[in-house]
Amino acid sequence: MSNAKGFSLIELLISSAVGLLAIGIVGSVFLSGHNAANKRSLELMLQQDVNDALRAIKEDILRAGYVSGSSSSLKISGAIETVYISPSNNCLAYTYQDKTGTQKYYSIYYKDGNKIVYKELSSAIDTTTACSVSYANSLIYEKSIKVIDFNISSEVVSSSSAASQYITMKIKAEVKNNTLINTEKFTKVKVRNWQ
């Protein structure tokens, strides 16, 4: 009988099983790494969006009440403080002049559904209409992020000659398709332009 060269059926089955096992292990490690990277990417997007929203509101609040060439600060009609806060719907509104000292700008932030909206107006508003503007822009990427809570509180700070306020803002948000990825951040701002 001549020497037959090649694989037997048993050797072929064993090598195929070992190969499939190796491919399965490599595939599961790859998928695990991909899922971890995807989750981390979503966490970073959420953190960055919430941080950017808080920073934008904070920088805007520092302009609240600015009026060129005057000893007193601008206030929205009907407001007691420089920054008007409506506790019923967590709305924040204020006014300031631009660098030419003529145009008044009115800025409003509030939670609308699952987003925080922002509107800047050049027409006069008062405390009764400040928190009911329409066609406002979303401050956070609303297609991927859901705002759970937007809370604003104010604390009066006064001295013998002037009064100001501390504004505390808290945002709680989560990724829309994954409620396990969430964050809660807050910041405290001292209003720069005293009354």
UniProtKB/TrEMBL annotation:
What is this protein called in UniProt? Prepilin-type N-terminal cleavage/methylation domain-containing protein
Q: Which UniProt keywords apply?
A: Membrane, Transmembrane, Transmembrane helix
Q: Where are the transmembrane segments?
A: 12-31
Q: Which NCBIfam families match?
A: IV_pilin_GFxxxE
Q: Domain of life, per the record?
A: Bacteria
